[in-house]
């Protein structure tokens, strides 16, 4: 697997500091036209075909972000067969469930892929001390920004494109997601191979190929994030109802289409 810290064409000075960068893609008219055309073309493609195109088009500067959800686990399974050298990383906020982190070891054992943990500068203890207690209780948006968004902003300096496992049917917000689009927030091409997939498609693949998944899903957690901001859902609730329950917040910010 290609390591995110050893990308080619890195600036030599930055490489010595341990923070290599690559020449950033610019959202030129030509690039935007290309990805819009390709997105439309891939509307009827399989997730495997989409991943195959993305890995070939963006080569060593293409990576996957995963929170080890069922969708992400199916994509890891696909990448292990299509492009096992693709870097896969997890934004380790320090608040993830142990059951989630245990999947990292299972991925390694099953596929020989080491998912990289990208961690914030401050530990949970240092972060909470700085803010006089858990910030997720007072300002969950800032907590997500500090312990997720900023991490991906750093990783993005080493990439041209990234892929995530969002589905359009997960929420009205995600229903807008293109197969391939320009991610303004991170300055990357974003690829969503499962955009047209359904929950049934994902779990069908997990069952067919005996793909590992988070045991919390068997306990009513349809969507798993950080433990302080995640609960099991009740019968009839939306599958993301357990995230930031009781607030107007529905997204951490990684997948905000309008940013």
Distance between the termini: 31 Å
Mean pLDDT: 88
CATH architecture: 3-Layer(aba) Sandwich
The CATH homologous superfamily corresponds to HUPs
Count of individual domains? 1
Q: Tally the helices: what do you get?
A: 9
Please state the overall shape, judged from the principal axes of the Cα atoms. Answer: globular
User: Mind telling me the C-alpha Rg?
Assistant: 18 Å
The CATH topology is given as Rossmann fold
Low-confidence stretches: 6-20
User: CATH top level?
Assistant: Alpha Beta
Major sheet summary line: 6 strands, mixed
Strand content: 5-15%
Q: Helical percent range? A: 25-40%
H/E topology pattern: HHHEHEHEHHHEEEH
In what order do the strands lie side by side in the largest sheet? 3-2-1-4-6-5
Number of strands: 6
What structural class is derived from the secondary structure elements? alpha/beta
Task: Summarize the structure in short.
By secondary structure, the protein is an alpha/beta fold. The chain is 37% helix and 8% strand.
Explain what the structure shows.
Helix content is 37%, strand content 8%. Helix 3 (47-58) crosses helix 4. The chain has one domain: Rossmann fold. The relative contact order is 0.16. The model is unreliable at 6-20 (pLDDT under 50). The chain contains nine helices and six strands, in the order H-H-H-E-H-E-H-E-H-H-H-E-E-E-H. With 259 residues, it is an alpha/beta fold. It is globular, with a radius of gyration of 18 Å. The protein has helices at 12-16, 29-41, 47-58, 70-82, 98-111, 124-130, 135-138, 140-156, 199-209; strands at residues 62-65, 88-91, 116-118, 161-163, 180-183, 188-191. It has a six-stranded mixed β-sheet with strand order 3-2-1-4-6-5, with helices on both faces. Helix 5 links the parallel strand 2 and strand 3.
């Amino acid at each position: 697997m290609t390591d995110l810290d050893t990308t080619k064409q890195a600036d030599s000075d930055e490489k010595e500091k341990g923070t290599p960068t690559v020449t950033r893609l610019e959202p030129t008219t030509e690039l935007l036209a290309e990805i819009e055309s390709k997105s439309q073309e891939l509307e009827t493609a399989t997730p495997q075909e989409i991943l195959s195109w993305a890995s070939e088009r963006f080569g060593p500067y293409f990576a996957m972000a995963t929170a080890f959800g069922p969708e992400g686990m199916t994509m890891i399974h696909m990448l292990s067969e299509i492009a096992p050298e693709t870097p896969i990383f997890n934004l380790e906020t320090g608040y993830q469930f142990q059951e989630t982190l245990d999947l990292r070891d299972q991925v390694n054992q099953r596929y020989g892929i080491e998912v990289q943990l990208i961690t914030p500068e401050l530990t949970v203890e240092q972060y909470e001390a700085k803010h006089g207690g858990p910030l997720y209780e007072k300002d969950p948006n800032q907590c997500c920004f500090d312990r997720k968004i900023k991490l991906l902003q750093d990783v993005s300096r080493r990439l041209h494109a990234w892929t995530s496992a969002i589905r359009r049917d997960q929420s009205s917000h995600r229903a807008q997601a293109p197969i391939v689009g320009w991610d303004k927030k991170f300055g990357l091409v974003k690829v969503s191979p499962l955009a047209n997939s359904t929950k049934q498609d994902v779990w069908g693949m997990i069952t067919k190929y005996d793909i590992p998944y988070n045991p919390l899903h068997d306990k009513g957690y349809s969507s798993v994030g950080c433990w302080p901001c995640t609960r099991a859902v009740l019968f009839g609730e939306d599958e993301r109802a357990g995230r930031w329950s009781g607030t107007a917040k529905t997204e951490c910010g990684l997948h905000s289409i309008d940013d």
